[in-house]
Design brief:
Length: 181
């Protein structure tokens, strides 16, 4: 499967997704590693087997082995962090924010890629997982690494398009199973 096959699967009512996918993948202005690491991490975070099945081979072909592994690690670490920190933030008792986290997060200690790429991937995954605390932390880290707002916004756009693609294609698969309802 390929990026083209994924775009072809988008129903006509969601044709803007095709254009948006082209825009973020082909015209977003990110370097290959940052782009495809973001696409992979977001495909994992979107939890769609079909989208991941289509995009993971594309990402693997365009990334070094270290970058491919680091992007997967960023998605895994953020799957834990986003739920944990979002929940602590949502609880009305602020004392939870003062307790020791007690969760391991060492997978990205020496990722073999620039810290700015890992922060970018983590930021994009946090957008999909809707963790405001993590979004703020990774956005601050990126700004501290001199990544401009326009570049950071590309991560938001990739996350939005990948999530929308996953939602749409998974919904279509369910509705197809219902006899086209």
């Amino acid at each position: 499967m390929s990026l083209d096959a994924l775009k072809a699967a988008v129903p006509d009512y969601a044709r803007d997704l095709r254009r948006n996918l082209d825009a973020v993948v082909e015209h977003g202005g990110l370097g290959q590693q940052r782009l495809w690491g973001t696409v992979l991490a977001c495909a994992i975070a979107a939890r769609s087997a079909r989208v991941l099945r289509e995009l993971a081979p594309e990402a693997e072909a365009r990334l070094s082995a270290d970058a491919f592994t680091a992007a997967k690690s960023a998605a895994a670490v953020m799957a834990v962090n986003n739920v944990f920190h979002r929940t602590r933030h949502l609880l009305s008792d602020p004392a939870y924010g003062e307790l020791r986290t007690g969760l391991r997060m060492t997978a990205l200690g020496h990722p073999g890629v620039p810290k700015s790429d890992v922060e970018f991937w983590s930021f994009a995954v946090s957008a999909i997982n809707a963790c405001g605390l993590c979004l703020d932390a990774h956005e601050r880290a990126l700004r501290g690494l001199e990544v401009d707002r326009e570049t950071i916004q590309e991560g938001i756009k990739i996350a939005a398009v990948i999530q929308a693609l996953a939602t749409t294609l998974d919904a279509e698969a369910v509705m197809d199973g219902l006899g086209g309802a």
